[in-house]
Structures are given as structure tokens and as C-alpha cells.
Amino acid sequence: MTPAPMPTFWEAARVWARIGALSFGGPAGQIALMHRMLVEERGWIGERRFLHALNYCMLLPGPEAQQLAIYIGWLMHRTAGGLVAGILFVLPGAMVMLALSIAYVLYGATPFVAALFLGVKSAVLAVVVEAVLRVGRRALKTRAAVVIAVTAFLSLYLLNVPFPLIILAAGLFGWFAPHRLAPPLGAEDEGHTLGLIDHVIAEGGASHLKPSRGRALRVLAVWLPIWLAPLALLYLVFGEASVWTKLAGFFSTMGAVTFGGAYAVLTYVAQAAVDGFGWLKPGEMADGLGLAETTPGPLILVLQFVGFLAAHREASGLHPLVAGALGALLTTWVTFAPCFLWIFLGAPYVEALRGHRAAASALAAITAAVVGVIANLALWFGLHVLFTDVGRITIMGVGPDVPNLLSLDWKPAILTLAAMIAMLRFKAGLGPTLLACAAGGLALSYLA
Predict the structure, then answer these.
(1) CA dist 337 to 50, 70, 256, 389, Å?
(2) pTM over 0.85
């Protein structure tokens, strides 16, 4: 049977726009949406190639779902396809997030809105806990994977080990011990069908998949300036102490070192934005994640919220809302531009590595480490949502956050428990859970 023709560029663009507008529910929901629309319904890409691309994207810093969209768009329609897929995946959510950030600074301090966000924070905590369980079931299938996850969690919580070092160590272990983590070669083929792009590749019709030094140098020459030119310009114009330079520098660094997707990014960003720069309060970071959970697009759009609040509060000479909007735009730019660099530079080499056992094992080890990172995030959020007094026990400069148990706030505790029961026991969706918890927070605000 002759395969159907590949979709045109504009046909694919319409599908990418639809995915961008419907991509609620965090990375798991977004990946599931792409799988259903691209693999199951349209057969544009085969199961094995989809999963191979996903494993690579989970290895990268930044939002894996958007990077997966760029990867598949690039596979189908080269660089232009990757650009359209990646931009349309982010654009709807970025526009909604900007509107919500403006509403937050205008009305967030009112008792009514504060009560709503009490419920949203509780739902977010339940979402993060559910993410730990969901990713854990997928990633922790061997004893070695469990050990990696637990080690990553303890290294972050107790020892404050830098996140990149944890990822590097996990990847090296997986690479040199593939017999402990990787599935038997060929096992991933069972039950998987080929997609339209697989047939095109098999017939030699996808020359852009072949890696070359010249192509890699051209990608670097184009995308490094696109990513880093704003940082250099801001440094020259405003100096190192400017909030603009700090935002561009900090989030450009995040684009290079924050591995494991949105939940992993938030562990570091939340602590730096709250404790390091003083841009946000702990509760406001949870508010931002709650807003990001309600919008389409990557959860990492919460960084746009951070950039908005930082510029809104610290930029002088501009109207606060204008400064906030510029801060949000700058943060979005330096956060997502690296994603295109990673895919356009690395995807040809990843395609050449398909079936490489050590590489698959390294990806599996990093995924296991990410489970520990998400667990650390869940604990961090839980401490700051459920307790009003959280301190730190330090020995030689490192140590864990510890709550004052007498400062337990019963309202978010009840809402979080209800949200976890709804999501884990009754499989309630993200949207209904957020709405119910927001209503619950409003109702509890009228109680003593």
C-alpha cells in the first residue's frame, strides 16, 4: 500500500497552531496531545521516531514539549517547519500569560483574588505531586533508576548540589552502565508503526537529517547571536546592575543549564528569584505556576511571569506595566531562543545515533534523575504553601529547609488533600481541579 503524501507546510502550520492553542495540562498533557494528533490520528511520524525525539528533548535544558514540536516540525519541513512549530507552540500561552500577569499586579492584592490564589496554590502542589508519581512510574523501572532518583533528591534537598552536576553524573552513569538501564536492542520496535516521515526518510528523501560540520557551524553562527545579542546589547547600554541585564543574563543561563523540563527548572529559578534576587516572594512563585498551569503552552512560561514582576518593580523611567511587559518579552526571548539552537544543532546527530545502546541508557538515567528533581520541587512548594514559617538548618553552608510544624496553615492543607484525592483517586482533570480549588479557597476565606 502506497503511503499517503506528506502534508504541505501550510497544512502542518494549521495543525501546529491547533496544538499550541490546545496544549494545556503541562508537558505530559502536551506530549500526549502531539502523540494523538501526529502519530495516531494523522500518522505523520512513527511511534519509535517520536519516542526517540522525546528522549533527546528530555536530555536538553528547557521545555521538552516545545523542543519536541520543533524537532518534529524540523523533521517534516526542515528549518522553516521547526520555526513555525516552535513559535506556534508558545505564542498563544505567552499572550495569555502576559494578560494574566497584568491582572495579577493590578488585582492580585485584593482579598478576593488572594483567596482564589490560595486555592490555586493548593491545586498546583497536588499537580506537582501527581507529576512525581506519573514520571516515576514511567522512568523508575529498574533498581538502578530508583537509586538515581533517590540520590538526586537527597543531593538537592540535603546537600544543595548544583543541578547540572546531578544531570551530568546521571548521564555518565547511564552511558557507562547501559546494561542497568537501557531496554534490549530492538525491544522498542515491538508494536510500533511507521509514519509518513519515516517512509520519506527510508526512501532517502530527507537529506537535512545528515549531520555535517559545515551545517553545524552555520547553525551556531545564526542562533548564538539570536539568543545572546540582546544580553550583550543590554549590558553595553544599561550596565551590569540593571534589572534588564540581570533578567537577560539569568534566564540566558537558565536556557543553558536547566535540564529536565519545566518542573526541574522551577526548583532553581524559584530559589534564585525569591532568595537570590528578591524579585518575588515564595507565595508569588506558586501563584505564577498556577497561572502557567491555566494557560496553553509550556509550563516554563512561569518564567515570563517572573520577568514581568521583576521589571514591573525595579525598572525606573518607564510606566510599571510597560516595564513589566518588556521584562516578560525579554524573558520569553532568552528562554525559548536556545530551544531552536539545541534542536537545529543536535537533531541530525541524534537521528544518526538511533539504536545506540549507551545513548539510550544515558537518556534513561537522566530521566530517573529528573524524578528526584521534581520530588524536591514538590517538597519545596509544599513547605511554602502549607507552612507560614520555614527556616533552614545549615552545616558548613549546606542543609535542608525545615518548617515550624506549629505554623501549619489548615486551609491550604485541606485544599491540597482534596485536590490530590480528586486527581489521584478520581482522575479529575487539571482544569476542573484548579477551578474547584479556587472556589474552595474563596469559600474558606470567609471562615475564621
Answers:
(1) 22, 11, 11, 38
(2) no
